[in-house]
Amino acid sequence: MKAKVHVMLKQGVLDPQGEAVRHALAALGFQGVGGVRQGKVIELDLAETDAKRAETQVRAMCEKLLANTVIESYAIELA
Amino acid sequence: MKAKVHVMLKQGVLDPQGEAVRHALAALGFQGVGGVRQGKVIELDLAETDAKRAETQVRAMCEKLLANTVIESYAIELA
């Protein structure tokens, strides 16, 4: 089973990477770009085949390692 | 209009970040985790309201700045 985890900085947390991208896009002449936020995606190949158990496992991984839940939120997608 | 860009290393390109995550998960006791790949997501707020033109614009951003197309592939999602 495959899992995709999206980790983004929470709203209100300063995102310097996103700001850098926004400035670079403006410098390259791209207009009409408002906010830019940058996050990460982690794709996992899991041996687990039960969707419910896989989600529980991935949620534990997020809480323990993949996301810093103080400043980041995460979303799990199973396929 | 909002756009989400996913940038991942192409298949076959070594992904040291993903490998580090895989090792860390194993060290934390998570079993049954095969491959791990890490990429980035960039969320853009665009002034453009036409989906077709927005896609063209975002594609140009990817080619010029957001992705290194030699080693990375990208996917665009508009919402």
Give the structure's gist in a few sentences.
The first copy, chain A, is an alpha+beta fold and 79 residues long.
Keywords:
homodimer, 79 residues, alpha+beta, Mth169, Chain: A, three-stranded antiparallel sheet, elongated
- CATH superfamily (homologous) name of chain A: Phosphoribosylformylglycinamidine synthase subunit PurS
> Could you say which overall geometry of chain A the principal axes of the C-alpha atoms support?
elongated
Helix proportion range of chain A: 25-40%
The overall average pLDDT of chain A, rounded, is 96
Q: Got a strand count of chain A? A: 3
Content-based structural category of chain A: alpha+beta
> What is the CATH top level name of chain A?
Alpha Beta
Strand content of chain A: 35-45%
Largest sheet of chain A: 3 strands, antiparallel
Q: Given the structure, what is the number of helices of chain A?
A: 2
The radius of gyration computed from the alpha-carbon positions of chain A, rounded to a whole number of angstroms, is 16 Å
Strand order of the largest sheet of chain A: 2-1-3
Task: Describe the model.
Two copies of one chain form a homodimer. The first copy, chain A, has 79 residues and is α+β, with helices and mostly antiparallel strands. Chain A has a single domain (2-78), classed as 2-Layer Sandwich (Mth169, Chain: A). Helices cover 35% and strands 37% of the residues of chain A. Chain A contains two helices and three strands. Chain A has helices at 16-27, 51-66, and strands at residues 2-9, 33-46, 72-78. In chain A, strands 2-1-3 form a three-stranded antiparallel sheet. The radius of gyration of chain A is 16 Å and the shape is elongated. The mean pLDDT of chain A is 96. Chains A and B meet through helix 1, strand 2 and helix 2 of A and helix 1, strand 2 and helix 2 of B. Strand 2 (33-46) of chain A pairs antiparallel with strand 2 (33-46) of chain B, so a sheet runs across the interface.
